[in-house]
Amino acid sequence: MSENNNESQKPANFISNIIQQDLDSNKHTAIQTRFPPEPNGYLHIGHAKSICINFGLAEDFGGKCNLRFDDTNPEKEDDEYVESIKEDVAWLGYRWSELCHASDYFEQLYDYAVELIKQGKAYVDSLDAKQMREYRGTLTEPGRESPDRNRSIEDNLDLFARMRAGEFEDGKYLLRAKIDMASPNINMRDPALYRIKKAHHQRTGDDWPIYPMYDYTHCISDAIENITHSLCTLEFEDHRPLYDWVLNQVQTPAHPQQIEFARLQLKYTITSKRKLNQLVTDKHVDSWDDPRMPTISGLRRRGYTPASIRDFCDRIGVTKKDSFIEMAVLENSIREDLNEIAPRVMGVLDPLKVTIENYPDGQTEDMQAQNHPQKPEMGTRTVPFSKTLYIERDDFMEDAPKKFFRLSQGREVRLRYAYYVTCTDVIKDDAGNVIELICTYDPESRGGSTPDGRKVKGTIHWVSAEHAVDARVNLYDRLFSHPNPAGTDDFIAHLNPESLITLENCKLEPSLATPDEDTRYQFERLGYFIKDKQSDKLTFNRTVTLRDAWAKIDKANA
Ligand code: ATP
Ligand code: MG
Predict the structure, then answer these.
(1) I need a surface site. Which of 114, 335, 431, 491 has the fewest CB within 10 A?
(2) CA 515 from chain center: how many Å?
(3) 164, 176, 195, 273: which is the annotated catalytic residue?
(4) How far is the CA of 431 from the centre of ligand 2 (A)?
C-alpha cells in the first residue's frame, strides 16, 4: 500500500467515465486538470480529496495537473499559506505540471472585462452593498435592474479605466455582468465581476486597486491554462451557468467543462478553513499543524502517511451525493498501512515498578525481540532485561476477576520476549495506592516457554527501569464530541475537552532514545507512534490506536 496506486486497481467513477469518453471521441487528446486553492489557510483533509481527484485523474490518464493559487482576496491571503500548500501537495506525493496564480492573469482578466463592456455585456454600477442586496431579489422574487444598468458603453469604459487607475475609494463602484435580473438562478442576476479594493497583494504589490471576483476569475484562469475538466465541489453547481456564460462571451483559448462532485465531510471534525482558522486564532489548538487538526500538516505531524491519505481518498470514492464519512474510515487506512510498515517496540505509558526478587542483583540480559513478528525480514533487536522493570499500571489488578489474564497477586504472566513472572507481593503507599509489585521469575522460561510446557494466558510489555528512556507521550482523541459540529450554532462549544492527553512520565525501551524522525513505531499493544519534531523533550504522538475503541461505543449508543 505504500506503493503508488496502479491505475487498473482504481474503480471508475462518473468523472473518469466522462474523461474516458472525451478521449475516446477525440474531444481531447490529453487531459489537463488543476487544483485551485485560495491561499487563505492550510489545506485540510477535504482538500486532500480534491488533490487526489485532480492529480490522480491526470496521472491515471497520462495528463497534467496544475497547482493554481486563487489569489484574488489579498487581505485574507498570505505567503505562509502558499508555502504550506506547496509542501502539502508535494508531501502527498504529487508533482504539479505548472505552478500558476490567478494574479498571473490580472492583465488578461482586465482586458477580457473591457471586451465584455465593449459588447454591452458589463457595466459599472454605483449601488452600494446594501442596495445590491435589495435589488438582487430572492429565491421567489425576481431582482430589479440597477439605475446604472443602461449606462453607455463609453461611460462604462471610462469609469472602469478610472477604477483601474485608482481614482475611487473602496466600494464606490462595481463592474457587473449584464445578464438577467429575473433569472431563477441568483448567480445570473448581474453578478459582480470587479470590486475596488486598495489592498496590497502578496505578488502584485500595489499595482491593482481593483480585484476580479472568484466566479469571473476562475473560469478565465481555467481557460487560459487550457484546462479540459474543471473539477470542483457541489456548491459550485449553481455557478456553472455563470462559468459558461463568461466563457461564451469572451474569446478564450478553450472552454473547459466544469464538473462537480460531493465535498468530503468527516464526522467529529470540521472541514472549513475559516473555522479551522478560528481554532488557531482563538488558541483552542496550538497551531494549524496541531495533530488534532484535520489539516494535512496536522495529520502529517500526527503520523499519517501520504499513502494512507491517498488510500482513504480512494476508499471514499467520487460521487455527487453529499454524505458524512466515519472517522473510522480514515483511521483504518492508516492502521492498515502502519500494520505493514511499522517496526514494533515496547514502551510503558503509565509505569508501575516491578522488582523481580529472585533475579540476580546487577545482572542485565539482552533479550532478542522481533521488529515485526509477521515480517522476519524486518529483523530483530535486543532489549535489556534486569531486576527492576516497569509494566503498564493497568496490566495489574488486585482482586482480579477470573477473566483478567494479566498480572494479579499469585498469577503468572509472560513478559514479552523475556520470562514468566508471578506476582508475590504488592507494596502500597500510605494512601493505599499500589506503588510496586514484587514478583518471582522462572529462569527456565527465557524466551517465552518452559520445559514443562506450562501455559500462561497473558503476555504483557515491559521495560527495564535502569535502561529505560524517559519520554512524553501525547494521546489524541476526536477534536469534537459532536458528529457534525459545523452544523450546530456554536461549534466551539462542542470541542472535546479530552482531545489531547499528555503523559509526562513514560518509559520506553532504549532503542527509542534516538528514534528515526520519520518512522512510525508500533508500541506493542498501545498503538502507532511518531516522534514529535517540534518538542525539545523526547515526545511521541500517538497516530492511532491498534483497534477502533469508538466502534464499540457507537454500537452501544445506536
Ligand atoms: P474551505 O471552505 O475549507 O475554505 P474552500 O472550498 O473555500 O474550502 P479552496 O481553497 O477554494 O477552499 O479549495 C480548493 C479546492 O478544494 C476547491 O476546488 C474546492 O472545491 C476543494 N475543496 C475544498 N473543500 C473540500 C472538501 N471538503 N472536499 C472536497 N474538496 C474540497
Ligand atoms: Mg473557496
Answers:
(1) 431
(2) 25
(3) 273
(4) 58
